[in-house]
Amino acid sequence: MKYRITTIGLALVAALGQAQAQESIEPKEADHKLIPYGKEKRQVLHLWLPKTKSPTPLVLHYHGGGFVVGDIREKTHSRTAAVCNAAGIAYADVEYRLLNQAMLHEIMNDCARAVQFLRHNAKKYNLDKTRVASYGESAGASASLWLATIDDQADPNSKDPVLRESSRLTAAGGFWVQATFDVIQWPQILGLPEDKTPYWGMVKSSKAQLGEKRFNELRKDMDMLGNMDKNDPPMHFSPGKEGQGVHSQRFVDVLEKRAKEAGANLIIKDGRESLMQFLTGKLNAKK
Where does 32-180+223-284 sit in CATH, by number? Predict the structure, then answer.
C-alpha cells in the first residue's frame, strides 16, 4: 500500500509539473498566416513551426461553431501551438467553409484537404508527413472523428497533386463530439422526435437538393459509427454534457459502444492537458 501511495503521489507531482510548465509558455504568433490550402475564401490555415532541423510531426486544429459560425482570422496567437512547438511538433489552425456556403460532405472535404495540403508541402514546411494528428471542439471534434474513421481520401489519379496525398491520421481527438454526421440516426440517439432534433432541417433540405440515391450514399460516408473499425488511429474524446443537445453524453455513449464492438482504440477522458499529452505522445512515439 505504501508503494502504491508513493507511486500515485509521484504521478500527481509529474502531472502538476507538466501543467505548470505548459502554463508558463507564452502564446506564440503564427509563423505563417492565412495560407490558402484551396481556392475558396475560407480554405485557409495558420501554421506554427518549431525550430528543428529534422522534419516535425503535425497537429491540426478544427474550430467549433456547429458549421454555422467560427473563424481563425484574428486568432494568430496560440498557447496550445506554442506548447506543441516546444515539444517539437508543428501546429495548424484550420478554417473551413460553413453550411451557408457548402454542404456538410463538402466541408469534410475541406478538412481532409487541409491535411493533404500540408502533406503535399511537407518539404517546404519541414513536416513529417507520416505523423499527423487532429483535434477540435464540437463540430471540429466531429471533423476529427470523421477523418479518423473514413477511408483514405487520397486519389492517386487526381489532376490535383494535393488530392493524391493521404488524409489518414496518426491520432485524433477533441471535446463534445457528435458520434455521427448521419443525422437520420440522431432522433434515436438523443431520444427526440424528428422535429425537435438539431439539424433536422438540414436533413430535409439536403435530401431534396441531392436526391434520395445520392443522399443515401452520403449518409454512409458521413456515418462515423458505421465507418469505425479496428484499423482506425487511436482516439481521445471528452465526455459529453447532460441533456439531449448537440454535446450530449448520449453521443459519447454510442461512440464507446461502437468502439468496443469494432475493436477501435478509444479513450474517453476530460481535460485539455490529457488530450494534448495523448496527441503529442502518439506523434512522438517511434514510427
Answer: 3.40.50.1820
